[in-house]
Amino acid sequence: xxxxxxxxxxxxxxxxxxxxxxxxxxxxxxxxxxxFHCWSSPSNAVAEITRILSSGGIFVGxxxxxxxxxxxxxxxxxxxxxxxxxx
Length: 87
Hints:
Number of helices: 3
C-alpha cells in the first residue's frame, strides 16, 4: 500500500507529449506505458520528457514493435534498444 505522503504529489495526466504542461526540471518521474509507437516524433517526445525531469528523475516508457527484423518500420530512436536486447 502506498503511504499517503507519497501520493500527495502524484498526478496522473493525459497530455500531448510534444507539449508537456510542466515547468522545466519539475517532475520526478514520468511513465508512458505502451506509447512510443503512437508518437509522431519519439525523439521530440523524449526531449520534452527530458526537459521536465528533475535531476535524477526517472522515465519509464514501453512500446510495441511491429517487427524486430524490419528496421525501417521501427522509429530510429528505438533501434539502439533492439541492439541492447540482442534482437
